[in-house]
Amino acid sequence: MYKIALVIVTFLLVVLANSPQAHAATTDTVEAGAKFRGKLVSNPGKSERPVTTQKLIDPNTATVNGTSVAVYDVWFDMLGDTDGDGYYHQFDVNFDLDTLYSHQRVYVIGELHGNTSQVLFQTEPYTLNGDSGSDSYQARVLLTDGYPSDQYELSLTIYDADTDAALMHYDSQDDYQLATLYLEDSSRENAAMDSVGLYELGFELSRDLDGDSYFTEIAVDIDADAPGQQRWVYARISLIDPRNDWTEIKTSNDFLLQDYSSNDRYYTRLVLDYGFEPARYRLAVQIYDADSGSLLLTSTSPGSTPLRLESTDWDNDAYVVVIEEEYYASGSGGSTSLFLLGMLCLFLLANHVRKSVK
User: Fold this and answer.
1) 22-188 has which CATH code?
2) Phi/psi at 17 (nearest 5 deg)?
3) Which helix (H) or strand (E) holds 166?
4) Are 229 and 193 in contact (CB under 8 A)?
């Protein structure tokens, strides 16, 4: 009986492991030759409009092509070229998809084509909201090995997340820039193998008691890589104010970087107790070698995404004075009440004087 149950459980695990949706749920992975992390972003070049049933997609065209989705925009941010030879080992590809419906769940598979073609990433299922730009997706890719210096083409295939049906294939015939990617893996970057790179610097703001849109808590997420090695490091985290002055807010304990793993991420949540006036700050991270204390890298958040922060001594919700107003009924009721109150005071005063005379 137990053997039968074990066989059934094993069969179900195999089915789940080979399910496209099971693979689609992965957002932070190291595949053969590439590292990928995905998240939702907003399209800065697209003005937001209320979601309606009238979308950018022509219903007649959608009927002919058998698809309910369209690619509104694709843009790249080329991030990593250590040796400056024009071939990048790290980049972001951002895509803004629209749907004929108010809401539709999809996932996207990106393939890189050179001498050979291979899957580069697969997003988790996510929801498209009509023709909104706030549901755009950013795939951050780092090529670790297996990609010689060359010109590559990226293609995107969009799938329905509920049925796994292919909805659309998008490549350089639709957008020429997808065929102009000059790439190489990080092992071909002519940099010292003992170098350390920053794959991602993320942050999240929280706690705003007085509702002024300046926050007192910040969570910092650091994903650094040590290509081909294991290395003990520590991090110093600072805030840069509008005057470009640096204030350190955290020095981490030592932590171990292991090649391109994402399991060695460093995460911390900090509360700004005092000393930070309401302002737009930038985040700075410096990573040091734990043995020698030498500075390995410095990275700062872009000025285009400021951190609206203040310390708790500026978060003055405890000192807010609430003034309650008294309202009187319309008409002369309020004046009459005051008149009667005055007459009562005069009567009591006269009565007191009369008793004193006696």
Assistant:
1) 2.60.40.770
2) -65, -30
3) strand 166-170
4) yes
Q: Which amino acid is at 80?
A: G
Give the class (CATH, top level) of 197-319: mainly beta
pLDDT score recorded for residue 342 = 60
Residue with tokens 């460093």: 266
224/197 Cα distance (integer angstroms): 6
The winner for highest mean pLDDT among 14-23, 214-223, 330-339, 346-355 is 214-223
Distance CA(123)–CA(157), nearest Å, equals: 11
Residue in the structure block whose two tokens are 């400021």: 306
Q: Where in the chain is the domain with CATH 2.60.40.770?
A: 22-188
Domain(s) of CATH 2.60.40.10: residues in the chain: 197-319
Residue 281 near residue 272, CB atoms below 8 Å: no
Query: How far apart are the C-alpha atoms of 139 and 222, rounded to whole Å?
Result: 17
* pLDDT higher than 60, residue 107: yes
Question: pLDDT tens digits for 118-161?
Answer: 999 999 999 999 999 999 999 999 998 899 999 999 999 999 99
The answer on pLDDT for 95 being more than 90 is yes
- What are the structure tokens assigned to 311, written together? 């310390």
What's this model's pTM, rounded to 2 decimal places?
A: 0.62
